[in-house]
Write a structure and sequence with these properties.
Layout lengths: L9 H11 L3 E11 L2 E13 L10 E2 L12 E2 L2 E2 L1 E5 L4 H6 L5 H18 L18 H9 L5 H15 L5 H8 L5 H8 L3 H12 L8
Antiparallel strand pairs: 1-2, 2-6, 3-6, 4-5
Helix pairs in contact: 1-3, 4-5, 5-8
Length: 214
């Protein structure tokens, strides 16, 4: 498990905060007892969102052999789409041991946002599985890198893109545009930004002490 792209800039935190406070989480928990304490092993974790296909998170993956048929499918009139979350045992370590089972559930809920902000994989690609009429995070990153580069490069360019868009729009506007616009070119036009704007964001960000990292 490697550290995900993170920056201390308010704009990046705003991007993630928007998602972290607006997701649906499904997981299978194996609660074990060690003496008088309880600890948990997590498995088969799903994260659901209206904006799954454009999430800037590096710990999500698709799998055909698991289903979420009983999960909430709509919220606020919008479809919720699910993807699997790879936690690599990090959540179990964050929760640690507890005196009561209910404390485990409370600690998982309280640690989830911090987990999404600070943990990820660089061997997983950005989402490229669209369920709406819009584009995907992977397509936008590919457009900005002209179809070449590693997962690391794709993630960084997608973050630069999102931070550039935040200079003109709030998070709700950005993600609503992303999931309703079919091509990266059209997304750039609707957001009123260019490739040069994204490059400028990258150049400015690289001058700071909070450069993006994996």
């Amino acid at each position: 498990m490697k550290q995900a792209f993170i920056s201390n800039t308010d704009s990046v935190l705003d991007i993630l905060k928007f998602h972290c406070l607006n997701y649906t989480l499904l997981e299978k928990l194996h609660v074990n007892r060690d003496g008088s304490k309880y600890y948990v092993e997590t498995g088969d974790i799903h994260l659901g969102s209206h904006y799954k296909q454009v999430l800037p998170l590096s710990n999500l993956y698709q799998s055909r052999d698991r289903h979420v048929d009983d999960a909430v499918s709509k919220s606020c009139g919008k479809n919720i789409h699910y993807t699997h979350l790879c936690d690599g045992g990090v959540l179990s370590n964050l929760v640690g041991t507890c005196d009561h089972v209910v404390s485990i559930l409370n600690k998982i809920a309280s640690h989830m946002t911090a987990f999404l902000l600070a943990n990820g994989n660089d061997d997983l690609s950005l989402n490229n599985n669209d369920h709406e009429s819009g584009t995907t995070a992977n397509r936008i990153a590919g457009y900005l890198t002209h179809g070449s580069g590693s997962n690391n490069t794709y993630y960084k360019n997608y973050w630069y893109f999102l931070n550039t868009a935040l200079q003109k729009h709030n998070t709700q506007e950005i993600y609503d545009i992303l999931i309703t616009t079919p091509t990266p070119e059209a997304v750039m036009t609707r957001l009123g930004i260019t490739e040069d704007d994204v490059k400028e964001t990258k150049a400015e960000h690289d001058k700071t002490t909070h450069s993006l990292r994996m």
